[in-house]
């Protein structure tokens, strides 16, 4: 009888049904960094706060950049108005 060649792919831990243990409801014995009450939509609340800070920073940079561009355009008009013709 010929033996089957062993697969070179690493197998993920599963409950035998092809579903990872964590999704199948079986605990793997490791502690989590956050509990279910500390998460929202599967992400820790710290991640949500970090996203909020990122959006605030991006909005501030866009506002600053827009004002800088508007000031440059205003300067072009000012110089053009006072140019010797």
UniProtKB/TrEMBL annotation:
* Residue span of region Disordered: 1-52
Residues passing through the membrane, by range: 59-79
Low complexity bias locations:
1-18
Q: Which Pfam families match?
A: DUF6126 (PF19621)
Where is this chain compositionally biased, Basic and acidic residues type?
40-52
| Entries under InterPro entries matching the protein | DUF6126
| The entry's keywords | Membrane, Transmembrane, Transmembrane helix
What name does the UniProt record give this protein? Uncharacterized protein
- UniProt source species: Streptomyces humidus
């Amino acid at each position: 009888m010929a033996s089957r060649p062993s697969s070179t792919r690493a197998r993920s831990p599963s409950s035998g049904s092809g579903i990872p243990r964590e999704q199948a409801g079986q605990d793997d014995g490791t502690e989590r960094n956050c509990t279910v009450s500390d998460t929202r939509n599967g992400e820790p609340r710290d991640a949500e706060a970090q996203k909020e800070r990122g959006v605030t920073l991006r909005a501030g940079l866009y506002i600053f950049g827009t004002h800088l561009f508007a000031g440059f355009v205003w300067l072009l008009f000012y110089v053009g108005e006072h140019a010797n013709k």
